[in-house]
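Predict structure. Chain length: 766.
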Amino acid sequence: MSDTSFRTLRLVAGAAAFMALSACSSFDSEQASDDTAQTDVAGSHQLTPEKIFASDTFNVERPAPTRWLEDGSGYTTLEESESANGRDIVRYHPETNERTVLVSAEQLTPNGEDKALHIADYVWSDDGNKVLIFTNTKRSWRTHTLGDYWVLNRSNNELKKLGGNAPESTLQFAKFNPQGTKVAYVMQNNIYVQDLNNFRISKLTNDGSDTIVNGTFDWVNEEEFFLRDGFRWSPDGQHIAYWQLDTEGTPVFTMINNTDELYPTLKEFPYPKVGETNAAMRIGVMPASGGKTQWMDIPGDPRQHYLVRMQWAGNSEQLLIQQLTRKQHINRAFITDIDSGNAQELLRESTDSWAEYVDDIHFLNDGQEFTWLSERSGYRHIYRVYRDSGRISAITRGNWDVVDVLRVNEEDGWVYFIASPETPLERYLFRASLDGSGRLERLTPDMDGTHSYSISQDAKYAEHTFHSVNQVPVTKMISLPDHKVIRTVVDNTDVQKAVENVEKQPVEFFRVEARDGLELDGYIMKPTDFDPNKEYPILFYVYGEPWGQTVANKWGGSLYLWHTMLTQQGYIVASIDNRGTKSPRGFDWRRSIYKNLGVVTVRDQYDALQQMLERWDFIDESRVGIWGHSGGGSQTLNALFRYPDAYHMGMALAPVPDLTLYDTIYQERYSGLLPESAERYKETSAITHAENLEGDLLLVHGTGDDNVHFQGSERLVNELIKHGKQFEFFAYPNRSHGIYEGEGTTLHLRTMMTEFVKEHLPAGGR
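Prediction complete.
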């Protein structure tokens, strides 16, 4: 491929944003804030770790969450009250910007208190007369799902705490019935219903325990399937459908806390590693007034299948349930009868690797049809399914992927979604006709970059956020489908000016070929004093697993600024998206790494490096480094161990050196089951090849990482010691996977990384 075939963007700022990944989630890209170190960098061209991570100069303002109202009267958001200590819930009309305080901070101030409830989240009843307030939250597993719930009745201004005498911060997932007369919630693994007329509490399940979980989930299902809220009101409010998990037999993982008490304390939780026993899963339906549960008769061993999604099937008599095999190569959609429990298979997606479950299901035609996402054509597209027969017909088609479905407006006959048919680096809003005619319209104007939308219920308005590698996020209220700007919500002008003032070279996007001819996307950031006649060290940033895309035309936040700082010090910074990454490039692209994580993924990285060396004489092949976090940490280890002659320095943060140590759902999806794939696990795990280390390695892990356990890094340390390999190892006490908790942690980590790069990858042109 010639240089003229490269796509180059002349840009003034930014590189691809670092993705926040759920499974094996990524490095925290948010800036740390230290009020004692507010350094004004607006007039400075040079960056330092302190300027990036201990200053608010580059902190991007985000708009308050927008909650579109069902009646089309506008949207609600949270604003600081001018008359009380707390926040108001305020409604705005999207066109006129008319402002109305729907719920004041005064109304949310409990009797005898001097400040309003802190609103972590809020939910309206369908009629808008009541609002649920979620407050005083704490983590269950990795997310804040525990807390207290209060309900405000706007008709009589009564504010009441739910749960009776329940212990503090023990309620989960409180939600109104469709009629707004009752609230259901989970407490200590049981489901309760509270009547809002007399506030009487009914306990619907009685078997909740340490091992029997009703209405919520265990660690692994929360993390990998995003299953947290585990029950659903029927549309008529007469029944509640719910998941029940039995974690008996699932191995318990133990973490030790050495810092918070005089003596060590232990944290234990069920965590099934590869090949171990999963929780048994089933779905039942019970009367909302209490009574016997009717369990749905879904075929298959409940410990060898996953019930990944459940919803009412467009009526109050049936459920639509999706079931994955443990291998995750088949997704079956069942229609079940709530009275008998009988299940009928309606639809099946099957692959020779892994199948995807479907989140974006919308019932149409009075429940007789629903939308579905499938990769059966080789690309991810929207389909229409007829529930009486399972017949399926395409709504969108073509050699491109639908990324996300945002809104289905049956009245007007359109489905709104995000896609990028021309380039995988960007994201745009489209709409397609629901009638399957193939009519397709791009609504986003010609603005290269990444676009996201929060669309109103009637699809007439949207909150639109745009950013790119040279533009920090800007949010505007727009009308649809004309995409006309009504007003600016957040412009981040000061941050944009500060970024533009930073000394930097333009960022370039390019493509190279792997050895089999497959094209790979990349970006490169050159030193600020770049001289094409000199050779410079290069540092690659890598993720490389199916949950992330590092090469994209989007704002990169503090990660981009840190990389820019390195270019100011005489480094080239680059990133490559190997095959298998979460790029909208079709089924074959994403599935090509099945049972080959750490092998073909890193081979692509190596091939890209070789092509870059051939094409650009300014890269010094004797000074090549690589770094990454989580899955990127694993890829960093594989690069150092598999290609020791090519990579001379690496920094691996929170890696998975031995793939058998990670959880069942994520790792078995991409690597297969034991024992049949035992040899593939051995070959694809970085620890197997640790004896080949020749370069300089920095290994970093938090001891409180409940996602990617510290255990893996300890095993790697032992293996490296066994082979006489010298390296640097740093453990952050009680930090979780993101390695951000604790005062000064982010600045400390990035400073350490900066010094390691400078010491082991000498800077500057030669």
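Summary: Residues 362-491 form a domain with the Neuraminidase fold (CATH 2.120.10.30).
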